[in-house]
Specification:
Chain lengths: 243, 302
């Protein structure tokens, strides 16, 4: 498996996706902090915690729009490398197990997404330090919360992964991934959000402790991920490689 | 009879109601270059994908090195180098990085990369990104990938497709030398008769999913018979006359054709003239491979 992971990472070399995954969250935090500073008075007038404000301002857009779009882009690019010029049909004629290829690609995809979230965390920390936010560093806000968001994003990851790896035309997974991400903030405000996995990261990030079923995005997220990952594996092992 | 490297039994692939490959029994012997010849859409790539485990057969089985591809794909694929509907590569990587992927999977020696680059004459481009390669260079890289790690069987799907004449010549020459140079067996598909004629030692002819001929190039040539071709007037009367003599005559255009066998052309000519026909042309013709091919496929041209 180590060998398979190394090979999958090698395939990603020179791909712009790692660059985007690194820069985008930093940019998001920069935007958030800029917004916060512009309305500094307003956001702190009632004595709100500055760290918390940085987190809020940065994560609204990151979690509701940028993260799901980035996840889609990451998963699509990982699959795209295989379909663009026949890589997969060549790679699968090597003595590799299809289950191994599937697992390695899924793991690498999820790791790049995790990396993306960790960069977001780190950017929050840097931003707080730069504007000299008072008090000790609240790791539960700037680290734990993003990690919770990550877990709540697992369904989005597996759905976009399965679409990308099984459909050689990247337009379809790209369209679905982004199309479903856009209305997620609206759906999150209805009671139907439980049926719409794209809302889970939003609930995890911004739902706070006051909504019922606070555990739901994590439990459902994890379950959906595991079920779809196994169903997708079976499908991938059986399918005819025609591209 | 020498050892069979590839053997299929009733190998069949259906896409819905459409039968792309229809019960074919391939036999490729050790050390030969087997030309898998057929027009576009005949089922060559589908067959090759089944041999490599990319596509599951609807029916039948394929055995390579005596092992079933369904049961022992890993053991087989270790020893098989392949090109499937070329070119396939990772364009964002260099030639060396592409080969490195193959090398790591096979657990082959580092030196292998330089060795195969040398064989296909790509050493000077090895650190260039493959997406900037010409088609010929990509094709040579694909062959290098297939050769890496001393594989015993090469399965090459239309390895010269899309190349310019110089590139075609180069790749054919390379393939031709492989069995002697490295002791490998080659199964290559092609839709060009002359290519198979120039490179292969054995031929399988596939058309509309069916394997219509299989044997050595020599056996294929032997199928060609000599015919006597006659232009006589009036043609219909001449035809009746010859048939009345118990000959099998075919009319094609304004000419009549008779299988030569032990027939004497001069005697035939004399008989026609004596009977009052004007004989304006008489020749003996040996069918070329193209004609044989058309006969075998029932008129499906390449
Ligand atoms: N996924 C598919 N679904 C339906 N039909 C298919 C599919 N793939 C191939 N076919 C059909 O199967 C037949 C055989 O295709 P195949 O690619 O094996 O032919 P080929 O001999 O390799 O032709 P070419 O010389 O064009 O490469 C074709 O008629 C093709 O249209
Ligand atoms: Mg083909």
């Amino acid at each position: 498996m180590k060998k398979m992971l190394e090979v999958e990472l090698l395939k990603l070399k020179n791909s712009w996706v790692l660059l985007v995954a690194t820069l985008a969250p930093g940019f998001m935090v920069f935007q958030g902090v800029a917004n916060f500073l512009r309305y500094y008075e307003l956001f702190t007038s009632r004595g709100q915690n500055v760290w918390h404000q940085i987190y809020l301002q940065s994560s609204i857009f990151y979690v509701s729009a940028m993260l799901p779009v980035l996840i889609t882009l990451i998963m699509v690019s990982i699959a795209r490398i295989e379909y663009k010029s026949g890589g997969l049909r060549y790679f699968l004629t090597l003595p590799v197990k299809r289950s191994g290829v599937y697992a390695a690609k899924l793991i690498v995809g999820c790791m790049v997404c995790l990396f993306n979230v960790l960069v977001f965390s780190l950017s929050l920390l840097v931003a707080g330090k730069v504007i000299n936010a008072p008090g000790s560093i609240p790791y539960d806000i700037i680290l734990t919360k993003p990690l919770m968001v990550y877990i709540a994003s697992l369904p989005v990851m597996i759905i976009t992964f399965l679409l990308s790896i099984n459909i050689s035309q990247m337009g379809i997974p790209l369209g679905i991934g982004i199309g479903f991400a856009l209305p997620s903030l609206l759906v999150a405000n209805t009671r139907y959000w439980v049926f719409y996995p794209w809302t889970y990261p939003i609930m995890a990030a911004l739902g706070g402790d006051f909504f019922e079923k606070a555990y739901f995005p994590f439990a459902a997220g994890f379950l959906i991920f595991v079920l779809l990952a196994f169903a997708g594996l079976r499908w991938f092992m059986e399918k005819d490689v025609l591209d | 009879m020498s050892e069979l490297v590839v053997e299929t039994q009733d190998l069949t692939k259906k896409y819905g109601n459409f039968t792309a490959v229809d019960g074919i029994d391939l036999q490729v012997r050790k050390g030969e270059i087997y030309g898998f010849l057929g027009p576009n859409g005949a089922g060559k790539s589908t067959t090759i994908r089944m041999l490599l485990g990319l596509v599951k057969p609807t029916r039948g089985d394929a055995r390579i090195f005596g092992l079933s591809i369904r049961q022992s794909p890993m053991e087989i694929l270790k020893r098989v180098g392949a090109i499937v509907e070329s070119p396939s590569y990772y364009g964002n990587l260099t030639a060396v990085e592409n080969l490195e992927i193959t090398r790591r999977i096979l657990g082959a020696d580092k030196k292998e990369i330089d060795r195969v680059l040398e064989i296909v004459n790509l050493s000077q481009w090895k650190n260039k990104k493959v997406k900037n390669f010409s088609l010929g260079m990509k094709q040579r890289l694909a062959i290098a990938q297939a050769l890496l790690g001393n594989r015993e069987l090469l399965i090459l799907d239309e390895p010269t497709n899309g190349l310019d004449p110089a590139g075609i010549h180069e790749i054919r020459q390379l393939i031709k030398n492989l069995p002697g140079m490295l002791g490998v067996t080659v199964l290559m598909s092609s839709h060009i008769l002359s290519e198979v004629e120039l490179t292969a030692t054995s031929v399988g002819i596939i058309s509309r999913g069916r394997l219509l001929f299989q044997g050595t190039l020599e056996e294929l040539r032997r199928k060609s018979e000599t015919e006597i071709c006659i232009e006589a007037h009036p043609q219909d009367k001449a035809l009746k006359f010859l048939e009345s003599k118990g000959l099998k005559v075919k009319a094609r255009g304004n000419r009549l054709f008779i299988k030569k066998n032990s027939l004497d052309a001069a005697a035939l000519n004399r008989a026609l003239v004596m009977e009052g026909f004007d004989v304006t042309h008489l020749s003996t013709e040996r069918k070329n491979l193209e004609d044989i091919f058309l006969e075998i496929t029932g008129g499906d041209a390449l």
